[in-house]
């Protein structure tokens, strides 16, 4: 789990290595992560990491697996430099109904011409951007999921709501015994098959920063 701060109040990315798999086929579902960081741009230039200038101080780059990142050459406007995650959708209005009306996300921006919308649960948190694309959203084999921390008492309400609305539930509410804590999760799928995990506050016990983490990783 990597990020710019503790998982309790920062967006983090989970990197998973699966043994015996040399590469993944990327689909058109994940459009990128936007990060505001002068340091990131400076690091990329110093390391001669490929950057494509997009204008207005924004640079496109790719992680080794091909996943896109957009680096803004500026100081972050919030405590977390990760500004947004952008996902492709086939029908913007249908997706807005799901993410906003059902899952309760606030719509911060909506651009009918560009067919995009920006949503979030709080002003100072990483946002979710939905971008409509022509045709079908293809997840191929290199897809992941977005996870949200949620009070345990609300998880059953989410499950009941999805059942009433005949929405897809990939994993019904379940308790997972994990070293350090027992967590409850429910995994959903939006109209385009994007996987969404809601997990309870026990995740905070698992996400505490290990002061020896960097040394252990180096070793």
Model description:
With 219 residues, the protein is α+β, with helices and mostly antiparallel strands. The protein has helices at residues 38-46, 92-102, 152-164, 203-206, 213-218, and strands at residues 2-3, 12-13, 30-36, 52-55, 58-62, 68-72, 82-89, 106-111, 116-120, 127-132, 145-149, 169-178, 181-189, 195-199. The protein has a single domain (2-20, 28-37, 76-218), classed as 2,3-Dihydroxybiphenyl 1,2-Dioxygenase, domain 1 (Roll), CATH 3.10.180. The chain has 5 helices and 14 strands. The chain has an 8-stranded mixed β-sheet with strand order 4-5-6-3-7-10-9-8, with helices on one face. A 4-stranded mixed β-sheet has the order 11-14-13-12. Strands 1-2 form a two-stranded antiparallel sheet. The chain is globular. The chain starts with a strand and ends with a helix.
Keywords:
single chain, 219 residues, alpha+beta, 2,3-Dihydroxybiphenyl 1,2-Dioxygenase, domain 1, 8-stranded mixed beta sheet, 4-stranded mixed beta sheet, 5 helices, Glyoxalase domain containing 4
CATH topology: 2,3-Dihydroxybiphenyl 1,2-Dioxygenase, domain 1
Q: Give the name of the CATH architecture.
A: Roll
Average pLDDT taken over every residue: 94
Low-confidence stretches: none
Q: What is the overall shape?
A: globular
Distance between the termini: 17 Å
- The figure for the number of domains is 1
- Find the CATH superfamily: 2,3-Dihydroxybiphenyl 1,2-Dioxygenase, domain 1
Strand content bin: 35-45%
In percent, how helical is the residue content?
Answer: 10-25%
| Strand elements, count | 14
Task: Report the oligomer.
Answer: single chain
User: How much is the radius of gyration in Å?
Assistant: 18 Å
Counted by DSSP, the helix tally is 5
Report the structural category. alpha+beta
Question: Helix-strand pattern, N to C?
Answer: EEEHEEEEHEEEEHEEEHH
Strand order of the largest sheet: 4-5-6-3-7-10-9-8
CATH class: Alpha Beta
Taking the sheet with the most strands, its summary is:
8 strands, mixed
């Amino acid at each position: 789990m990597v990020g710019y701060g503790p998982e309790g109040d920062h967006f983090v990315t989970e990197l998973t290595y699966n043994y015996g798999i040399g590469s993944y086929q990327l689909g058109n579902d994940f459009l990128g992560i936007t990060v505001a960081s002068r340091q990131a741009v400076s690091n990329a230039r110093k390391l001669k990491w490929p950057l494509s200038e997009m204008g207005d101080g924004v640079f496109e780059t790719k992680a080794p697996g091909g996943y896109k990142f957009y680096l803004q050459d500026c100081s972050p406007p919030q405590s977390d430099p990760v500004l947004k995650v952008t996902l492709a959708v086939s029908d913007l209005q249908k997706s807005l109904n799901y993410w906003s009306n059902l899952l309760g996300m606030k719509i911060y921006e909506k651009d009918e011409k560009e067919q995009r919308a920006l949503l979030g649960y709080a002003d100072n948190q990483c946002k979710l951007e939905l971008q409509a694309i022509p045709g079908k959203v293809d997840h191929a084999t290199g897809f992941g999921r977005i996870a949200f921390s949620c009070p345990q008492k609300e998880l059953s309400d989410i499950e009941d709501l999805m059942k009433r609305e005949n929405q897809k539930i990939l994993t019904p509410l379940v308790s997972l015994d994990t070293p350090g804590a027992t967590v409850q999760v429910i995994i959903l799928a939006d109209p385009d098959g994007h996987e969404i995990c809601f997990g309870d506050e026990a995740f905070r016990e698992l996400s505490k920063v290990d002061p020896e983490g960097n040394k252990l990783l180096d070793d």
